[in-house]
């Protein structure tokens, strides 16, 4: 995609801390990344790695309190989203940044018609009249491949299947022609065939509309199929960042390597036993002072427990937050 | 929906007939004798004649069928005659109160306005207070507003109306002498002065009952709002850039009202029957008070008729609650 173009979204040093009764939880720790126009950025990580919280934080969808969102800047459209007022954020949400959430069964309001729910952002952000909004809503339903769109506008969410509801969610997210679409595990709750259909639909829509997409998932197979670049998250930090080819060919962080080994292979005579990563992802009660993966890492050594690694450049457009140098086969000799 | 309503109405006929039989038999088995208030100087044989004059000499099934005929045939005819000046009920025996020897339904019609004004008004006021309190308490959960609201509802919930009523009388009638302690049913409103007197005599009974109703309904409202505020569709609404007003008062409230409306509808029959004690405390000449005096005097026709009317209201408002549920929640379809 358009290399070197100014990023649409630039996140620098984003940190989110939840103040709970049992102490603070550092869910997002100094996350920095940028999103280029029209690219699809995949974010992978297991449950609790801070993928969703990162996305919710940068657009003010995290309830604060209990959350405290801080950081250097989240630049979007000439605005710093961290210092923007609630009103400014509301004008961006749903208009310039669209969202698709994980569970289509509960993400739509059960008592309003689909038409009403698609028309809401159109009327608010684009100032459309009711007939205009209805015409656009119908066009959107057709765009996401829902047959008989005119009649379906009057239906309620419970009259749609899971896959169809996720299509409706995508229609809502795309309603105001957003520059960025954030899809938070949009296919996780769907069965495999429906998942393939939604992925196919996203491919088409991106080709047609050209928006940038952030695709959150824990499924590496999905990422391999659609992403341009990938961020791997662990313990609320980005541990590796690479082009999708590089990541699968030359993973440079032990966590990414371990993740790739957990993908089941079906080639060969008999299925092998699934690899697992032993242990649990950490719950951080303080800002990390050591590598958060060290406890589960087969390559860890003394320095990993003492210092939290920065993201070292390991190749062009490829960085990894690890003190172990896979190219050299030993500890990295840096600062 | 119409089909369902008709079916339900038809089912309620045998239900109500059975209820009326149970009430009748229970009253017949109950101790007490309508003659017990007759002075002891009246000779037994005269008492026996009086009993026969009241129709008490007949066997129980004849008395029951008589009552059924009078309630379902004669009384409607009387009402019809009264409205359209016909004379269908000419010369037919109506349900007669043992105490006053006047037709029960005439007394009910006389007492009804007092009850509707005092108890009905308190129900409406209770609802109007409870809904905003419930909504704000839930939206600002654990705020000082919520804490105070919770405390007051707990008081309203746990202090019986016969206590809070007497307490108000002691404070405001006896010590401060602001309001009359006895409700004057014969008072008519003719000018501003008499209107003010009417307001003053209604304040205490209405506020006692309103507090009690508001306590219950605000708890329901709060719980229902809390259930919905954390739903995924609320996050979707926020992600669409909807204002908090739209999110809470349109998206969340529409869903939260579904169980609350049901509770409110089911509570309506208690307007007629449930305020018995409060009416007694403030000497409001309403239906509740009439029921109490009728029970003391073993006035079986009066008790039977009033209790049956309450039963009809309960069955009716159950049906209304179900229908409202079907209207408010598109997921419920009865056909």
TrEMBL record, chain A:
CDD domains listed in its UniProt record = ABC_NikE_OppD_transporters
Give the InterPro entries listed for this entry.
Answer: AAA+_ATPase (IPR003593), ABC_Ni/Peptide_Import (IPR050388), ABC_transporter-like_ATP-bd (IPR003439), ABC_transporter-like_CS (IPR017871), Oligopep_ABC_C (IPR013563), P-loop_NTPase (IPR027417)
**Gene Ontology cellular component list:** plasma membrane
Q: Where in the cell is it found?
A: Cell inner membrane
Q: Main subcellular localization, coarse class? A: membrane
What is the top-level taxon of the source organism?
A: Bacteria
Alphabetical keyword list: ATP-binding, Cell membrane, Membrane, Nucleotide-binding, Transport
Gene Ontology MF term list: ATP binding; ATP hydrolysis activity
Q: What are the residue boundaries of the ABC transporter domain, all occurrences included?
A: 9-260
Q: Which PROSITE patterns does the protein's record reference? A: ABC_TRANSPORTER_1, ABC_TRANSPORTER_2
- Entry-linked SUPFAM superfamilies: P-loop containing nucleoside triphosphate hydrolases
What is its membrane topology?
Answer: Peripheral membrane protein
GO BP field = peptide transport; transmembrane transport
Stated family: Belongs to the ABC transporter superfamily.
Q: What is this protein called?
A: Peptide/nickel transport system ATP-binding protein
Instruction: Give the taxonomic lineage as stored in the record.
Output: Bacteria, Pseudomonadati, Pseudomonadota, Alphaproteobacteria, Rhodobacterales
UniProtKB/TrEMBL annotation, chain B:
Q: Tell me the compartments it is located in.
A: Cell membrane
Q: How does it sit in the membrane?
A: Multi-pass membrane protein
Q: Which residues cross the membrane?
A: 9-27, 115-139, 151-175, 195-215, 257-277, 306-328
Which GO cellular component terms are attached? Answer: plasma membrane
Matches recorded under InterPro entries: BPD_transp_1_N (IPR045621), MetI-like (IPR000515), MetI-like_sf (IPR035906)
Domain ABC transmembrane type-1 per the UniProt entry, residue ranges? 112-321
Q: Primary place of residence?
A: membrane
One Gene Ontology biological process: transmembrane transport
Protein name (record): Peptide/nickel transport system permease protein
Origin organism of this chain? Answer: Celeribacter baekdonensis
């Amino acid at each position: 995609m358009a290399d070197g173009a100014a990023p649409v979204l630039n996140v620098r040093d984003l940190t989110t801390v939840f103040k709970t009764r049992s102490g603070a939880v550092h869910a997002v720790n100094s996350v920095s990344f940028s999103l280029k126009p029209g690219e699809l950025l995949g974010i992978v990580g297991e449950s609790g790695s801070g993928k969703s919280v990162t996305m919710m934080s940068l657009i003010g969808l995290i309830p604060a309190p209990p959350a405290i969102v801080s950081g250097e800047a989240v630049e979007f459209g000439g605005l710093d989203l961290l210092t923007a007022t609630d009103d400014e954020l509301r004008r961006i949400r749903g208009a310039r940044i669209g969202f698709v959430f994980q569970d289509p069964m509960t993400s739509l309001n059960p008592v309003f018609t689909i038409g009403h729910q698609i028309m809401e952002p159109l009327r608010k952000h684009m100032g459309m009249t009711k007939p205009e909004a209805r015409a656009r809503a119908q066009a959107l339903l057709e765009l996401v491949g829902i047959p008989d769109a005119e009649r379906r506008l009057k239906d309620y969410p419970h009259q749609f299947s899971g896959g169809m509801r996720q299509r409706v969610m995508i229609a809502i997210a795309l309603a105001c022609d957003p520059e960025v679409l954030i899809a938070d595990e949009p296919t996780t709750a769907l069965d495999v065939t429906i998942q393939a259909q939604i992925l196919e639909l996203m491919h088409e829509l991106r080709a047609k509309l050209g928006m940038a997409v952030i695709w959150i998932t824990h499924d590496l197979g999905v990422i391999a199929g659609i992403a341009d670049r990938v961020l791997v998250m662990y313990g609320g930090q980005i541990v590796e960042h690479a082009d999708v080819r590089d990541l699968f060919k030359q993973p440079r962080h032990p966590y990414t390597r371990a993740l790739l080994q957990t993908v089941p292979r079906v080639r060969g005579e008999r299925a092998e036993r699934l690899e697992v990563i032993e242990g649990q992802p950490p719950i951080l009660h303080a800002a990390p002072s050591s590598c958060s993966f060290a406890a589960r890492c087969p390559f860890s050594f003394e320095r990993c427990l003492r210092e939290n690694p920065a993201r070292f450049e390991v190749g062009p457009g490829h960085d990894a937050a690890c003190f172990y140098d896979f190219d050299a086969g030993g500890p990295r000799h840096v600062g | 929906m119409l089909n369902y309503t008709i079916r339900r109405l038809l089912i309620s006929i045998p239900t109500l007939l059975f209820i009326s039989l149970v009430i009748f038999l229970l009253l017949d088995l109950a101790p007490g004798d309508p003659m017990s208030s007759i002075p002891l100087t009246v000779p037994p044989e005269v008492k026996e004649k009086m009993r026969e004059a009241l129709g008490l000499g007949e066997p129980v099934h004849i008395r029951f069928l008589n009552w059924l005929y009078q309630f379902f045939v004669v009384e409607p005819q009387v009402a019809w005659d009264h409205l359209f000046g016909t004379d269908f009920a000419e010369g037919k025996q109506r349900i007669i109160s043992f105490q006053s020897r006047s037709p029960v339904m005439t007394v009910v019609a006389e007492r009804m306005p007092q009850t509707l004004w005092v108890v009905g008004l308190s129900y409406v006021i209770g609802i109007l207070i409870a809904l905003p309190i419930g909504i704000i308490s839930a939206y600002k959960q654990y705020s000082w507003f919520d804490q105070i609201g919770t405390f007051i509802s707990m008081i309203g919930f746990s202090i019986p109306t016969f206590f809070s009523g007497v307490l108000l009388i002691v404070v405001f009638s006896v010590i401060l002498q602001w309001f009359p302690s006895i409700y004057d049913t014969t008072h008519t409103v003719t000018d501003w002065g008499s209107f003010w007197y009417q307001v003053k005599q209604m304040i205490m009974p209405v506020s006692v009952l309103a507090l009690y109703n508001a306590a219950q309904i605000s708890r329901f409202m709060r719980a229902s709002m809390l259930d919905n505020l954390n739903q995924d569709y609320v996050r979707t609404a926020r992600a669409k850039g909807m204002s908090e007003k739209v999110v809470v008062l349109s998206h969340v409230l529409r869903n939260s009202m579904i169980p609350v409306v049901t509770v409110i509808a089911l509570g309506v029959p208690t307007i007629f029957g449930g305020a018995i004690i409060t009416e007694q405390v403030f000497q409001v000449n309403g239906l509740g008070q009439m029921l109490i005096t009728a029970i003391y005097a073993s006035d079986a026709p009066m008790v039977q008729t009033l209790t049956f009317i309450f039963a009809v209201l309960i069955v009716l408002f159950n049906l209304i609650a179900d229908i409202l549920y079907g209207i408010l929640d598109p997921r419920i379809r009865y056909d």
